[in-house]
Write a structure and sequence with these properties.
8 strands, binds erythose-4-phosphate, globular, alpha/beta, cytoplasm
Length: 218
């Protein structure tokens, strides 16, 4: 399972990278705004800064355009920024056309804002490299986000689709574990969802005892 971090915060990206388990980064316009990154030039520069931290990892950069021609223009500009950029495209009609266009050109896409198995099927048919079902936002409206991961896994396995299931809107460590059990290819979430995997009270108690016993004999 690949681990992506879902943030535009360079310090958090660097911390996850230093842990040695980071495979990529996802961003979106809201995450950029949260870090105060505004203006086209600043946003483009920030994508390059992120790519330079995540050695070799995929970095999703989202288009703002919503019509085919503008999506293509914007996506091509994003893809040219850095070889690690994945063009993130929303699940709308022109987005499906744009994903097919990019797929035919060998440019990788991440289909975002996916909330149903049908949308995921379309993304795979259009040749998206990644599909991003937002499990946390489904949970927020009292729907089972994890069930969507299971449904997409079944559909993709039935037909051998190569589109990777990128469990997005992951909110906590149990989401990571559950997505791993269901066979999601990738998860993207906050740094806390990754570092939370480290914690177990028996590890802390066991280590404290080992160190205390060592001290007794030395
Ligand atoms: C995915 O690529 C999105 O950026 C993200 O996971 C959305 O998460 P949220 O629902 O926590 O905003």
């Amino acid at each position: 399972m690949k681990f992506f971090i879902d943030t535009a915060n360079l310090d958090q990206i660097a911390e996850a990278q230093a842990l040695g388990v980071l495979d990529g980064v996802t961003t979106n316009p809201s995450l950029m705004a949260k870090e105060g990154i505004v203006g086209r030039d600043n946003i483009l520069k920030h994508y390059v800064d992120i790519c330079n931290i995540v050695e070799g990892g995929d970095v999703s950069a989202e288009v703002i355009a919503t019509d085919f021609d503008s999506m293509v223009k914007e996506g091509e500009e994003l893809a040219e920024l850095h070889e690690q950029i994945i063009v993130k495209i929303p699940m709308i009609k022109d987005g499906v056309k744009a994903m097919k266009y990019f797929s035919d050109k060998g440019i990788k896409t991440n289909c975002t804002l996916v909330f149903s198995p049908g949308q995921a099927l379309l993304a795979a048919k259009a040749g998206a490299a990644y599909v991003s079902p937002f499990i946390g936002r489904l949970d927020d409206i009292s729907t089972d986000g994890l069930n969507l991961i299971a449904e997409i896994r079944q559909i993709y396995d039935n037909y051998g689709f190569e589109t990777e299931i990128l469990a997005a809107s992951v909110r906590h460590t149990m989401h990571v574990i559950d997505c791993a059990k269901l066979g999601a290819d990738v998860m993207t979430g906050p740094l806390s969802a990754i570092t939370g995997l480290l914690s177990h009270p028996l590890t802390d108690i066991g280590l404290a005892k080992f160190l205390a016993d060592y001290k007794k004999g030395n």
